[in-house]
């Protein structure tokens, strides 16, 4: 696998882990937003711009959820 494929694997794996753990802490919601941004970058870098656009939107949605979530 090349470096771009490894980057994509990391981004999608981070999304999965953060999504699974986001009930434990608001920081996992922020991590999910960051991982979606990485997934968006991966989509654009590999030439799959629809994937890049959707992941960018997911990143903004997750960032808003983190911003509006009550803090402990």
Characterize the structure shown.
This protein has 72 residues and is mostly helical. The chain has one domain (3-68). It has 3 helices and no strands. Helix 2 (26-46) runs antiparallel to helix 3. The longest helix is centred in the middle third of the chain and has 21 residues, at 26-46. The radius of gyration is 13 Å and the shape is flat.
Key terms:
mainly alpha, 3 helices, 72 residues, single chain, 0% strand
SSE layout and pairings?
Layout: H1 3-21, H2 26-46, H3 49-68
Helix pairs in contact: 1-2, 2-3
SS-based class: mainly alpha
Count of domains: 1
Provide the gyration radius in Å. 13 Å
- The poorly predicted ranges are none
Helix proportion: over 70%
- The shape is flat
Distance between the termini: 42 Å
Condensed summary:
83% of the residues lie in helices and 0% in strands.
